[in-house]
Write a structure and sequence with these properties.
The complex is a heterodimer of chains A (211) and B (222).
Chain A: E1 2-11, E2 14-24, E3 28-33, H1 40-48, E4 55-60, E5 63-64, H2 65-68, H3 70-73, E6 76-79, H4 91-101, H5 108-117, H6 133-146, E7 151-155, H7 163-178, E8 182-186, E9 197-202, E10 208-210
Parallel strand pairs in A: 3-8, 3-9, 6-7, 7-8
Antiparallel strand pairs in A: 1-2, 1-4, 4-5, 9-10
Helix pairs in contact in A: 4-5, 4-6, 5-6
Chain B: H1 2-18, H2 21-41, H3 45-68, H4 73-78, H5 80-85, H6 91-119, H7 125-152, H8 159-167, H9 172-186, H10 192-220
Helix pairs in contact in B: 1-6, 2-3, 2-6, 3-6, 3-7, 3-9, 6-7, 6-10, 7-8, 7-9, 7-10, 9-10
The chains are: A alpha/beta (211), B mainly alpha (222).
């Protein structure tokens, strides 16, 4: 379980949000809303431990995440604006290396299957720098298909994807939530995330309610 | 753990081999700087031999600084660095792997080409041997110390110059003992003491530099 207690974050001199508290249980999804600049990305990065909050605490299974560090990192998958894929490596190499660094090695066959499922059949062996934006995004998102971390933190995962890929990704997210996973995501696109327990969190206004 | 080290080492070497322009540029920078001195100073054998160790070492230092600027920059830009901070692996180990890969593709070519360049300075066989050993012991230290500066200046505008200003003073001992070993050999004193000191610096850098760079990266990546 992820607990956020009285979190406050500042960027520069500006306070983005303060006294933010919520919990994320297994089998839940929180859809984070907010206008541009309301601190969505900052909140997501703070949840992963990439940014130190100004005050407040983030707890994983009851302990503060900055004391858990690597132990917590094993439980989180973060996909941000930057896809974290290497242009000089092929899609297959990218996926295999990312998985190995995440602490679980996958077989080549497993990686092939994941890339096929995400719609990159025939592009597995090309350097990712020659792929289109949407295809690069798919390579980055293929990590979710082979992933075993319970908490997914996804910053605008649907950007640059075509309709088929959006549908596929929604299915993957729904499966993850159904398998007692946790998802925290932000998106401006109109997507129906109806499966499982979906909660809406509005930044800038500060209200948290059930959908 | 060794597996993670190997994975990242392999990744960085593969990436470097697939875009070789940077590596070649770095090597040519070293060759040109070292070769400019005989042209500028003139073909006075005794003078050239006297300045050779210092010139080669300063050039190696400058070439290392030039290459170090890029060690974390590409990973920072495409987001893989962010992911490295979020892996359940010790960050210092990942940094050690990156530095090792960086040294293998930028440092080792310098060491290999140095004896050829040394011939321009009329260095004796014995001096060339000592020069290679000093470079072999010294250039990894340069990469390790430089990684701290590169981590600190990551994402800053003009970070390369700032990095050089931060790191170069720290590399002075390596320069002194590196060039000193060759000079001591030439004068018949024997450079073994210098080599031991270079080895000691390398061991200290191997242990402390990845930890320091890890702390710096966590700050820079915020």
């Amino acid at each position: 379980m992820l607990e956020v207690v009285n979190l406050e974050c500042q960027r520069g001199d500006r306070c983005l949000f303060s006294e933010l508290s919520f919990t994320l249980q297994r089998g839940e999804l929180i859809h984070l809303h907010g206008h541009n600049g309301s601190g969505k990305t900052t909140l997501l990065r703070a949840l992963c431990g990439l940014i130190l909050p100004t005050s407040g605490e983030i707890r994983w299974q009851g302990s503060a995440i900055d004391s858990l560090r690597e132990e917590f990192a094993a439980n989180v998958t973060y996909i941000g604006h930057k896809g974290a894929i290497k242009g000089g490596l092929t899609a297959l190499e990218n996926l295999q290396i990312a998985s190995r660094l995440d602490g679980f090695a996958i077989t080549e066959e497993h990686a092939w299957r994941a890339l096929e499922r995400i719609g990159l059949r025939g592009f597995e062996d090309l350097p990712t720098r020659v792929l289109s934006q949407g295809q690069k995004r798919r390579v980055a998102l293929a990590r979710l298909l082979v992933n075993r971390a319970p908490l997914w933190v996804l910053d605008e995962p649907f950007v640059a994807l075509d309709r088929a890929a959006v549908g596929l990704l929604q299915g993957v997210i729904a499966d993850h939530v159904a398998n007692a996973g946790m998802v925290m995501l932000t998106t401006h696109q109109e997507v129906s995330l109806t499966t499982g327990e979906v909660r809406q969190l509005q930044l800038g206004v500060g209200a948290l309610g059930h959908a | 753990m060794l597996d993670i080290f190997r994975t990242l080492l392999w990744r960085d070497i593969t990436l470097a081999m697939r875009s070789r322009a940077d590596l070649v540029a770095n090597l040519f920078f070293f060759i040109i700087v070292v070769s400019l001195f005989p042209l500028g100073i003139g073909p006075e054998m005794a003078t050239l031999r006297l300045i050779a160790p210092g010139v080669v070492w300063v050039a190696a230092l400058l070439a290392s600084m030039l290459a170090l600027e890029r060690i974390f920059a590409a990973d920072y830009e495409d987001g893989t660095l962010e992911q490295m901070l979020l892996t359940p692996q010790p960050l210092a180990l990942l940094i050690l792997a990156k530095v090792a890969a960086h040294w293998l593709v930028t440092g080792v070519p310098l060491v290999l080409i140095a004896p050829v360049l040394g011939l321009q300075y009329n260095l004796s066989g014995e001096m060339l041997q000592v020069l290679i050993v000093t470079l072999l012991l010294g250039t990894p230290s340069l990469s390790l110390i430089g990684a701290i500066g590169a981590a600190l200046t990551l994402g800053l505008r003009g970070g390369g110059v700032l990095n050089a200003l931060l790191v170069m003073p720290l590399t002075i001992p390596v320069l002194i003992f590196g060039a000193g070993a060759v000079e001591a050999t030439a004068s018949g004193l024997g450079g073994i003491g210098h080599l031991y000191l270079l080895g000691a610096i390398l061991l200290a850098a191997l242990f402390f530099a990845p930890l320091a760079a890890a702390a710096a990266l966590r700050i820079s990546a915020e």
